[in-house]
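Sequence and structure are no longer studied apart. As an example, we show below a sequence and the tokens encoding its fold:
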Amino acid sequence: MGRVNERGGWMAANLEVARLHYPAGWLHAEDLVDVAVQALLDGWDSPSLRSLAGLIEVDLRDAPELFARALAEVGLFPLSKREAL
């Protein structure tokens, strides 16, 4: 399940799908901000998820680490690329 982002690529529609797509290389750091915003709208909440949702383009280098922390904070531990595929 996904939706088209502003760059015309597919992105995960929710946090659990993004958990699989990111390590597989199907999402980029800039997509994680959109994933975090949608996750908050879907009822997920954690300090790192809030931080990730508020990132601006200049801070995108922090997105992968914040995504991993946000997953852990809500009980969805990050997967390796091998696990995701």
